[in-house]
Amino acid sequence: MTRRIRTAMKMGANGRLWTWLGRGSVARLARVPTLRNSVWFQERAKAFLRLGYWPNLARPSTLAEKLLWLKLHYMHPLHARLTDKLAVRSYVEEHAPEIRLPRLLWNGDDPTALPWAAIPRPSVLKPNHASGYVAFLSRDADDAHVLDMAARWLLVRYQDKGAGRHYEGIPPRLLVEEFLGTVGADGSLVPPADFKVLVANGRALCVQHFTGRFQQTVRRMYDTQWNLLPITRHGGDGKPPEELHDDVPRPSCLANMVSAAERLAAPFPFVRVDFYVVHDAPYFSEMTFIPSNGHIPIMPRSWDRTLGAQLALPAVG
Fold first, then answer.
1. Residue 188 has pLDDT above 70, yes or no
2. Distance CA 258, CA 273 (A)
């Protein structure tokens, strides 16, 4: 690393230099060969471009800073097991037996062994060792295309995509679950709404409500009593923040989801526990230890600090 870049990084540890340089300069620096393999720089640069401020990981105070700190400095022995979308099911059955799990229709490590004729349509295909990969197996799905896509999923090393060390060591497999959403009049598949409970040090902070997944996502944030909070997500990369959307009815199973999330999250400093609600019944979705890869863009900044103040970071040796 050149002396000039080292000096700039030292000067910029508190963010003043990087803010002065701006997004364009930071993005260009991230492509410099000397910095391309620097985890120190790359993680902070990605956060800066997404959050709009340079994260202070020496004295983290916002929720975004603390999540990035956890990503870089903390591992729990259960992280990999509970990140694994197959292995986590037994943990949920043990610690929150009242919460339903989507029916598991098939799992394996060879997509060509998938029993297409026996799989009910619609259903959902995804890998156990990554996030954001999903295929809806509808009646008119192109099975050959799905087969090719699934084979490529098994080759993905998600930990190498900046997702965090808790993805390491998960044996890649595929799973097919029942589809919990609805089928539109035109045959389109509409996923159920997501309810994502953010839990810090065993206590639920708030609940994110997501609709329109895989189309036009609408996010809302509530406290644990279902009061709408004035929080939106920053657009990232210079985009404007999302709009603050209208309220939605309180789910009748809210208390059950919050209680289950706190029990599932008890061993960890932070985890987001995701649920679906179908006919007033909560179904488990997944546990996410580092939402948005540690670059969670919360607006206004005051709420980023308010939520961050409620997360006590563990001591690491």
1. yes
2. 9
